[in-house]
Amino acid sequence: MPSAQPKIALVTGAARGIGLAAAKKFLAEGWRVALLDIEGELLARAVADIGRSDDTLALSCDVSDSTAVGAAMTAVAQRFGRLDALVNNAGIAVFAPLMETSEADWRRVLEVNLTGPFLCTRAAVPLMRDGDGGAIVNITSISAVRASTLRSAYGTSKAGLAHLTKQLAVELASLNIRVNAVAPGPVDTAMAKQVHTKEIRADYHDAIPLNRYGLEEELAEAIFFLCSDRSSYITGQILAVDGGFDAAGIGLP
Ligand code: NAD
User: Fold this and answer.
1) How many angstroms is it from 89 CA to the middle of ligand 1?
2) For ligand 1, what atom is nearest to the CA of residue 213?
């Protein structure tokens, strides 16, 4: 019997961190992957390191630019002819008190973290609709549900994305498209290195029942599960992958 056609995933923010780990997980599971990132050179190096040119497509693109997103989706259609999963992972963080949050920072965080997933999803749905349906996973954050003194822009963008997840799960179910979210606790990526001070790290350590940061690969497992047929009856859910941080309910600085 001929083997089934490989499935296709598009992962945004895939040049490093959680997105790159997710792309590698899809490849390890036999999928083909379009890796999209605003950092074109970093992405090209990451894709060259993976070394699977038949199974990968590198897309240099800003998720907040609707024209660029449309062109990226056309490139996916031309190269792979279908799309089975979209992982809206690209994100940026600004951790600052309200009075030190500039209007430009506020707008950019909302544009990348919330408008980006909206644009990518809107562009991806026709490709999924013309196939067998598919799965979308939005990467929110535990900051979507836990308030703090530093995350008015970041936490609000992720709370918006959590709601968009539920909204689209309901709307797209008739197209056999499932929409879920993964809400990471702290993971020691380039983003965390940029915004997690020594004090934040110490507080996280004490507040997380498992007393450690998550690993990129641990996030990738959850992302893949929600894109795979193993989660075929799960839609509209937000899965915290956070070492028990949300369950413990202790405040952040
Ligand atoms: P990271 O900074 O290592 O990776 C983010 C990637 O997104 C980078 O490669 C970056 O170039 C890309 N990117 C940024 N803006 C983009 C844009 N406009 N268009 C396309 N690509 C863009 O960060 P990470 O920790 O791997 O974060 C991945 C996701 O996980 C983000 O959405 C982040 O908010 C979320 N998250 C991370 C943590 C954590 O502690 N690391 C916790 C909760 C949620």
Assistant:
1) 6
2) 40
**ipTM of the complex, rounded to two decimals:** 0.99
Q: Which residues are catalytic?
A: 154
CB–CB of 35/52 below 8 Å?
no
User: Is there an atom of ligand 1 within 6 Å of 181 CB?
Assistant: no
Separation of CA 75 and ligand 1 centre (Å): 22
8 A C-beta contact, residue 19 and residue 90? yes
Give CA–CA dist 179/234, Å, rounded. Answer: 8
Q: What is the pLDDT along the chain (253 residues), one digit of tens a residue?
A: 445 789 999 999 999 999 999 999 999 999 999 999 999 999 999 999 999 999 999 999 999 999 999 999 999 999 999 999 999 999 999 999 999 999 999 999 999 999 999 999 999 999 999 889 999 999 999 999 988 899 999 999 999 999 999 999 999 999 999 999 999 999 999 999 999 999 989 988 889 999 999 999 999 999 999 999 999 999 999 999 999 999 998 655 4
What is the Cα–Cα distance from 66 to 165, expressed in whole angstroms? Answer: 19
Ligand 1 centroid to residue 191 C-alpha, Å: 6
